[in-house]
Design goal:
- This protein is mainly β.
- It has four domains: about 45 residues, no CATH class; about 80 residues, Ribbon (left handed beta-beta-3-solenoid); about 70 residues, Ribbon (left handed beta-beta-3-solenoid); about 110 residues, Glucose Permease (Domain IIA) (Distorted Sandwich), CATH 2.70.70.
- The protein contains two helices and 37 strands.
- The strands form eleven sheets. Strands 29, 30, 31, 32, 33, 34, 35, 36 and 37 form a nine-stranded antiparallel sheet that branches. Strands 3-4-5 form a three-stranded antiparallel sheet, with no helix packed on it. Strands 6-7-8 form a three-stranded antiparallel sheet, with no helix packed on it.
- The chain starts with a helix and ends in an 8-residue tail after the last strand.
- This is Stage II sporulation protein Q.
- Keywords: Signal.
- InterPro entries: Cell_wall_metabolism_enzyme, Choline_bind_rpt, Dup_hybrid_motif, M23ase_b-sheet_dom.
């Protein structure tokens, strides 16, 4: 019997089932080799996943994590980079809620939704204070005034200085600050190394020329700068008044309106010009005795009555504080004193509304 045909059939039937199909031994060998390769590749992939390090994407979840030796680093905090930018990492995961200012070895950064916002320029806060951010990064070299929704603030070395009180400048002018913030409600005087300035609504008013009254005192202002206290008390060291501005009973004239204030002082005491100006009168009258009138400009005049002697003449220019006369009791007077008066636009005003002793 010839068994050669059976041998061929047996050989054909000696196939191997692979993936539910009957295949030839040759194909089975190929399939086996492919399966072995796939298993090896999978093992390598798992091994690679186990040893991943750094800020990487989880292919299964689509989330980014910080890995150390293949594990999410739950103790890791910092700012790190992927292909989409720089991100705030907390406990190994991106904190998409972070809006703070955080640090890495390259600086301090402004976060917006957990990501460094390189388009941000302005003020932002963290637990250490308020900071000036330029293009996403704290600018530690910055000094000046910067704004946010709460106002304008003094920046020193990139940080808001809430202890700052005084004058500071930016491109819009010079400003008065209290507690590190521009005080837009402030109107008054403020000083820096360049002088004393008139501040109106928080800003130096460089356009102002004239007199201002602050805390009961008058000041002369030129170009926003206080050139001097507008008026000074004419008797140094003598501040008590023996008579005031207003209705009184005069020993010489009976009931009358007193147009000045009487300041008692020893005879011969120096009388000073309350402000600079031109002497328009230096004369004697039976009522005023030896008396002087000075025109200070802007409609303001001062008068000095009952002097023992005069030290200036009509037409003289006098400076503030210059001795112009001496206390006496000439004219209608009962004792040594100075009758000191103010006129504004031709009308007598209370001297205490213009100057304080």
């Amino acid at each position: 019997m010839n068994f050669s045909g059976k041998k061929v059939m047996a050989s054909a039937l000696a196939g191997i089932v692979v993936a539910g199909m009957l295949v030839s031994p040759a194909y089975a060998g190929t399939a086996k080799t492919a399966k072995t390769a796939k298993t090896t590749k999978s093992a390598k992939s798992e091994k690679k996943e186990e040893t991943r390090n750094g800020f990487q994407l989880d292919d299964k979840t689509g989330e980014w994590h910080m890995y150390v030796d293949g594990e999410i680093a739950k103790d890791y905090y910092g700012i790190d980079q992927n292909i989409y930018g720089w991100w705030r990492i907390e406990q190994g995961d991106v904190n998409f809620d972070s809006m703070s200012v955080e640090a890495n070895p390259y600086g301090w950064w402004k976060l917006n939704g957990g990501k460094v916002d390189f388009d941000y320029t302005g003020l932002a806060a963290n637990e250490y204070g308020w900071w000036y951010i330029h293009e996403g990064m704290v600018d530690f070299d910055h000094f000046g005034l910067e704004q946010n929704e709460y106002g304008w603030f003094r920046i020193e070395s990139g940080k808001v200085n809430f202890d700052f009180n005084g004058l500071a400048a930016n491109e819009y002018g010079w400003w008065y600050l209290q507690g590190g913030r521009v005080d837009f409600d402030y109107t008054g005087l403020a000083s820096n190394e360049n002088g004393t300035w008139y501040v109106r609504n928080g800003q130096i008013d460089f356009s102002y020329n004239g007199h201002v009254k602050i805390d009961g005192k008058q000041y002369l202002v030129k170009g926003g700068q206080v050139s001097q206290e507008a008026y000074i008390w004419p008797l140094d060291g003598y501040t008590r008044l023996s008579d005031t501005f207003g209705e009184r009973i005069c020993p010489f004239h009976g009931k009358e309106f007193h147009d000045g204030v009487d300041i008692p002082a020893p005879g011969g005491t120096n009388i000073m010009a309350s402000a600079s100006g031109v002497v328009t009168k230096a004369t004697y009258s039976s009522s005023f005795g030896n008396n002087i009138t000075i025109d200070h400009g802007n409609g303001v005049e001062t008068m000095y009555l009952h002097c023992s002697a005069l030290a200036v003449e009509e037409g003289d220019h006098v400076e503030q504080g210059q001795v112009i006369a001496y206390v006496g009791t000439t004219g209608s007077s009962t004792g040594n004193h100075l009758d000191f008066r103010f006129k504004v636009n031709g009308e007598y005003v209370d001297p205490l509304s213009m100057v304080q002793p």
